[in-house]
Specification:
Blueprint: H1 4-8, H2 21-41, H3 51-64, E1 68-69, E2 81-85, E3 88-90, E4 104-113, E5 116-125, H4 131-149, H5 157-170, E6 174-175, E7 181-183, E8 190-194, E9 211-214, E10 217-219, E11 225-227, E12 234-236, E13 242-244, E14 247-251, E15 256-258
Antiparallel strand pairs: 1-4, 2-4, 3-12, 4-5, 6-10, 7-8, 9-14, 10-13, 11-12, 14-15
Helix pairs in contact: 2-3, 4-5
The structure holds 2-amino-4-trifluoromethylsulfanyl-butyric acid and cobalt (II) ion (CO) (2 copies).
GO molecular function: initiator methionyl aminopeptidase activity; metal ion binding; metalloaminopeptidase activity
Cofactor: Co(2+); Zn(2+); Mn(2+); Fe(2+)
Subunit structure: Monomer.
Amino acid sequence: MMNDTALLLPMRTGEIRIHDAEGFEGMRKAGRLVAECMDMLVPEVKPGVTTEHLDNLVREYVLDHGAQSATIGYRGYRHATCISVNHVICHGIPSPKPLKEGDIANIDITVIIDGWHGDHSRMFGAGELKRKAERLVDVTYEAMMAGIAQIRPGRRFGDIGGAISEIAHKNRMSVVEDFCGHGLGKLFHDEPNVVHSAAYNTGPELKPGMFFTVEPMLNLGRKDANILPDGWTAVTRDRQLSAQYEHSVGVTEDGVEIFTTSPKGWHQPHKVKL
Ligand code: MF3
Ligand code: CO
Ligand code: CO
Protein backbone atom coordinates (compact mmCIF):
# COMPACT_ATOMS: atom_id res chain seq x y z
CA MET A 1 0.00 0.00 0.00
CA MET A 2 1.45 3.37 -1.01
CA ASN A 3 1.03 6.37 1.25
CA ASP A 4 -0.22 9.75 0.00
CA THR A 5 3.29 11.14 -0.37
CA ALA A 6 4.45 8.21 -2.49
CA LEU A 7 1.52 8.72 -4.86
CA LEU A 8 2.61 12.30 -5.53
CA LEU A 9 6.31 11.57 -6.02
CA PRO A 10 8.03 10.61 -9.24
CA MET A 11 9.48 7.07 -9.30
CA ARG A 12 13.17 6.34 -9.45
CA THR A 13 13.59 5.39 -13.09
CA GLY A 14 17.25 4.36 -13.14
CA GLU A 15 17.87 7.28 -15.51
CA ILE A 16 19.27 10.65 -14.50
CA ARG A 17 16.36 13.08 -14.52
CA ILE A 18 16.51 16.32 -16.53
CA HIS A 19 14.70 19.25 -14.87
CA ASP A 20 13.23 22.42 -16.42
CA ALA A 21 13.20 26.13 -15.46
CA GLU A 22 10.49 25.51 -12.87
CA GLY A 23 12.77 22.93 -11.23
CA PHE A 24 15.58 25.49 -11.05
CA GLU A 25 13.18 27.96 -9.36
CA GLY A 26 12.13 25.29 -6.84
CA MET A 27 15.72 24.32 -6.07
CA ARG A 28 16.80 27.95 -5.65
CA LYS A 29 14.13 28.44 -3.01
CA ALA A 30 14.94 25.20 -1.16
CA GLY A 31 18.68 25.80 -1.43
CA ARG A 32 18.41 29.39 -0.16
CA LEU A 33 16.35 28.31 2.85
CA VAL A 34 18.75 25.58 3.94
CA ALA A 35 21.73 27.93 3.46
CA GLU A 36 20.00 30.62 5.57
CA CYS A 37 19.31 28.02 8.23
CA MET A 38 23.01 27.10 8.23
CA ASP A 39 23.94 30.80 8.56
CA MET A 40 21.58 31.01 11.57
CA LEU A 41 23.68 28.30 13.28
CA VAL A 42 27.03 30.05 12.89
CA PRO A 43 26.88 32.11 16.12
CA GLU A 44 25.33 29.17 18.00
CA VAL A 45 28.13 26.63 17.55
CA LYS A 46 30.62 27.03 20.41
CA PRO A 47 32.11 25.00 23.26
CA GLY A 48 29.43 23.87 25.73
CA VAL A 49 26.51 23.73 23.29
CA THR A 50 24.88 20.31 22.83
CA THR A 51 24.24 18.96 19.35
CA GLU A 52 20.68 18.22 20.52
CA HIS A 53 20.18 21.96 21.14
CA LEU A 54 21.48 22.79 17.64
CA ASP A 55 19.08 20.20 16.20
CA ASN A 56 16.16 21.84 18.05
CA LEU A 57 17.10 25.24 16.62
CA VAL A 58 17.08 23.78 13.11
CA ARG A 59 13.78 21.95 13.52
CA GLU A 60 12.10 25.15 14.71
CA TYR A 61 13.71 27.28 12.00
CA VAL A 62 12.58 24.94 9.23
CA LEU A 63 8.98 24.82 10.48
CA ASP A 64 8.88 28.61 11.06
CA HIS A 65 9.85 29.10 7.41
CA GLY A 66 7.05 26.98 5.97
CA ALA A 67 9.32 24.06 5.12
CA GLN A 68 9.70 20.47 6.28
CA SER A 69 12.71 18.50 7.41
CA ALA A 70 13.44 15.74 4.90
CA THR A 71 15.32 13.67 7.47
CA ILE A 72 12.62 13.42 10.18
CA GLY A 73 10.93 10.11 9.39
CA TYR A 74 13.43 9.21 6.67
CA ARG A 75 14.12 5.44 7.06
CA GLY A 76 13.31 5.79 10.75
CA TYR A 77 15.66 8.76 11.37
CA ARG A 78 14.16 11.17 13.93
CA HIS A 79 16.14 14.41 13.70
CA ALA A 80 16.31 17.58 11.59
CA THR A 81 20.10 17.39 11.35
CA CYS A 82 22.97 14.98 11.24
CA ILE A 83 25.81 16.34 13.39
CA SER A 84 29.06 14.48 12.91
CA VAL A 85 31.77 15.39 15.42
CA ASN A 86 35.54 14.73 15.01
CA HIS A 87 36.03 11.07 13.89
CA VAL A 88 32.36 10.73 12.89
CA ILE A 89 32.22 10.68 9.07
CA CYS A 90 28.49 11.31 8.61
CA HIS A 91 25.00 10.58 9.99
CA GLY A 92 25.97 11.55 13.54
CA ILE A 93 22.84 11.64 15.75
CA PRO A 94 22.22 14.83 17.79
CA SER A 95 22.87 14.13 21.45
CA PRO A 96 22.97 15.75 24.92
CA LYS A 97 26.79 15.71 24.85
CA PRO A 98 28.25 19.24 24.71
CA LEU A 99 30.86 20.28 22.14
CA LYS A 100 34.29 21.00 23.60
CA GLU A 101 37.03 23.44 22.62
CA GLY A 102 38.71 22.31 19.41
CA ASP A 103 35.94 19.97 18.20
CA ILE A 104 35.06 20.01 14.51
CA ALA A 105 31.49 19.18 13.51
CA ASN A 106 29.69 18.70 10.22
CA ILE A 107 26.08 19.86 10.35
CA ASP A 108 23.96 18.42 7.52
CA ILE A 109 20.41 19.65 6.92
CA THR A 110 17.90 18.75 4.24
CA VAL A 111 14.69 20.77 3.82
CA ILE A 112 11.67 20.32 1.56
CA ILE A 113 9.80 23.38 0.33
CA ASP A 114 7.11 23.26 -2.36
CA GLY A 115 8.21 19.65 -2.88
CA TRP A 116 11.86 20.51 -3.70
CA HIS A 117 14.83 19.35 -1.59
CA GLY A 118 17.73 21.53 -0.43
CA ASP A 119 20.55 19.36 0.97
CA HIS A 120 23.54 21.18 2.47
CA SER A 121 26.28 20.75 5.05
CA ARG A 122 29.20 22.77 6.40
CA MET A 123 32.00 22.19 8.90
CA PHE A 124 31.84 24.17 12.14
CA GLY A 125 34.52 24.56 14.79
CA ALA A 126 34.05 24.96 18.54
CA GLY A 127 36.51 27.63 19.65
CA GLU A 128 40.10 27.41 18.43
CA LEU A 129 40.99 24.47 16.19
CA LYS A 130 44.25 22.54 16.19
CA ARG A 131 46.29 23.02 13.06
CA LYS A 132 45.73 19.55 11.61
CA ALA A 133 41.96 19.74 12.20
CA GLU A 134 41.80 23.13 10.47
CA ARG A 135 43.88 21.83 7.57
CA LEU A 136 41.49 18.89 7.07
CA VAL A 137 38.47 21.19 7.13
CA ASP A 138 40.06 23.63 4.66
CA VAL A 139 41.23 20.92 2.24
CA THR A 140 37.76 19.34 2.30
CA TYR A 141 36.15 22.65 1.33
CA GLU A 142 38.73 23.18 -1.39
CA ALA A 143 38.09 19.64 -2.70
CA MET A 144 34.31 20.14 -2.83
CA MET A 145 34.67 23.44 -4.70
CA ALA A 146 37.21 21.94 -7.13
CA GLY A 147 34.78 19.08 -7.81
CA ILE A 148 31.97 21.57 -8.47
CA ALA A 149 34.25 23.64 -10.76
CA GLN A 150 34.45 20.61 -13.10
CA ILE A 151 30.71 20.72 -13.76
CA ARG A 152 29.48 21.81 -17.19
CA PRO A 153 27.63 20.09 -20.05
CA GLY A 154 29.86 17.59 -21.83
CA ARG A 155 32.03 16.82 -18.80
CA ARG A 156 31.48 13.52 -16.93
CA PHE A 157 30.52 12.68 -13.35
CA GLY A 158 33.95 11.10 -12.82
CA ASP A 159 35.59 14.49 -13.40
CA ILE A 160 34.03 15.66 -10.11
CA GLY A 161 35.57 12.78 -8.15
CA GLY A 162 38.80 13.11 -10.13
CA ALA A 163 39.30 16.69 -8.95
CA ILE A 164 38.28 15.86 -5.36
CA SER A 165 40.67 12.87 -5.11
CA GLU A 166 43.52 14.82 -6.66
CA ILE A 167 43.30 17.49 -3.94
CA ALA A 168 42.82 14.96 -1.14
CA HIS A 169 45.77 12.81 -2.17
CA LYS A 170 48.07 15.78 -2.79
CA ASN A 171 47.42 16.67 0.87
CA ARG A 172 47.91 13.05 2.07
CA MET A 173 44.25 12.67 3.01
CA SER A 174 41.84 9.92 1.95
CA VAL A 175 38.40 10.08 0.31
CA VAL A 176 35.58 8.05 1.87
CA GLU A 177 34.10 5.56 -0.60
CA ASP A 178 31.19 4.18 1.41
CA PHE A 179 28.97 7.27 0.99
CA CYS A 180 28.20 9.19 -2.20
CA GLY A 181 26.54 12.32 -3.45
CA HIS A 182 23.19 11.76 -5.14
CA GLY A 183 20.66 13.14 -7.57
CA LEU A 184 17.93 15.17 -5.85
CA GLY A 185 14.93 17.33 -6.70
CA LYS A 186 11.44 16.17 -5.76
CA LEU A 187 13.21 13.03 -4.50
CA PHE A 188 15.76 13.17 -1.66
CA HIS A 189 18.04 10.45 -3.08
CA ASP A 190 17.75 9.94 -6.85
CA GLU A 191 20.04 8.72 -9.65
CA PRO A 192 22.98 8.91 -9.99
CA ASN A 193 25.46 8.11 -7.21
CA VAL A 194 28.05 10.87 -7.26
CA VAL A 195 31.28 9.02 -6.43
CA HIS A 196 33.81 11.33 -4.78
CA SER A 197 36.70 8.92 -5.37
CA ALA A 198 35.96 8.51 -9.10
CA ALA A 199 38.54 8.97 -11.88
CA TYR A 200 38.56 11.73 -14.50
CA ASN A 201 36.83 10.92 -17.79
CA THR A 202 34.57 8.18 -16.38
CA GLY A 203 30.86 7.92 -15.60
CA PRO A 204 27.77 9.45 -17.22
CA GLU A 205 27.91 12.72 -19.16
CA LEU A 206 26.73 15.87 -17.40
CA LYS A 207 23.69 17.45 -19.07
CA PRO A 208 21.79 20.73 -18.47
CA GLY A 209 18.95 20.23 -15.99
CA MET A 210 20.64 17.53 -13.88
CA PHE A 211 20.40 18.25 -10.12
CA PHE A 212 22.65 16.49 -7.59
CA THR A 213 24.79 16.95 -4.49
CA VAL A 214 28.56 17.09 -4.21
CA GLU A 215 29.40 16.07 -0.62
CA PRO A 216 32.91 14.68 -0.25
CA MET A 217 34.09 13.23 3.05
CA LEU A 218 37.87 13.42 3.60
CA ASN A 219 39.80 11.63 6.35
CA LEU A 220 43.16 12.47 7.90
CA GLY A 221 43.90 8.75 8.13
CA ARG A 222 42.49 5.80 6.20
CA LYS A 223 39.29 5.91 4.15
CA ASP A 224 37.63 2.97 5.91
CA ALA A 225 34.31 3.42 7.75
CA ASN A 226 32.35 1.52 10.38
CA ILE A 227 28.71 1.94 11.37
CA LEU A 228 28.06 2.08 15.13
CA PRO A 229 25.41 -0.20 16.69
CA ASP A 230 22.86 2.66 16.56
CA GLY A 231 22.60 1.82 12.84
CA TRP A 232 23.41 5.37 11.68
CA THR A 233 26.67 6.84 13.00
CA ALA A 234 29.51 6.26 10.51
CA VAL A 235 32.97 6.59 12.06
CA THR A 236 36.50 6.25 10.75
CA ARG A 237 37.86 2.79 11.59
CA ASP A 238 41.13 4.33 12.75
CA ARG A 239 39.25 7.01 14.77
CA GLN A 240 41.19 9.80 13.02
CA LEU A 241 39.36 13.01 12.06
CA SER A 242 36.92 13.24 9.16
CA ALA A 243 35.38 16.31 7.47
CA GLN A 244 32.64 16.95 4.90
CA TYR A 245 30.96 19.78 3.04
CA GLU A 246 27.88 19.48 0.82
CA HIS A 247 26.29 21.65 -1.84
CA SER A 248 23.19 21.01 -3.95
CA VAL A 249 23.86 22.02 -7.55
CA GLY A 250 22.27 22.11 -11.01
CA VAL A 251 23.94 21.79 -14.41
CA THR A 252 23.16 24.89 -16.52
CA GLU A 253 23.56 25.42 -20.29
CA ASP A 254 27.15 26.54 -19.82
CA GLY A 255 28.23 25.55 -16.31
CA VAL A 256 26.84 25.01 -12.85
CA GLU A 257 24.51 26.75 -10.41
CA ILE A 258 25.09 26.21 -6.68
CA PHE A 259 21.71 26.31 -4.94
CA THR A 260 23.04 26.32 -1.37
CA THR A 261 25.45 29.29 -1.33
CA SER A 262 25.60 31.14 2.03
CA PRO A 263 23.70 34.45 1.73
CA LYS A 264 26.05 35.89 4.38
CA GLY A 265 29.19 34.57 2.70
CA TRP A 266 29.80 32.27 5.68
CA HIS A 267 30.96 29.37 3.51
CA GLN A 268 33.42 28.19 6.13
CA PRO A 269 31.87 28.91 9.55
CA HIS A 270 35.09 28.24 11.51
CA LYS A 271 36.69 31.25 9.79
CA VAL A 272 33.86 33.66 10.67
CA LYS A 273 34.80 36.18 13.36
CA LEU A 274 31.67 37.56 15.02
N1 MF3 B 1 21.62 14.70 4.33
C1 MF3 B 1 22.23 13.41 4.11
C2 MF3 B 1 22.72 13.43 2.68
O1 MF3 B 1 23.51 14.28 2.39
C3 MF3 B 1 21.29 12.28 4.34
C4 MF3 B 1 20.90 12.14 5.75
S1 MF3 B 1 19.75 10.89 5.90
C5 MF3 B 1 19.51 10.81 7.55
O2 MF3 B 1 22.33 12.72 1.81
F1 MF3 B 1 18.46 10.05 7.69
F2 MF3 B 1 20.58 10.33 8.13
F3 MF3 B 1 19.26 12.00 8.04
CO1 CO C 1 23.18 14.62 0.36
CO1 CO D 1 23.11 16.12 3.32
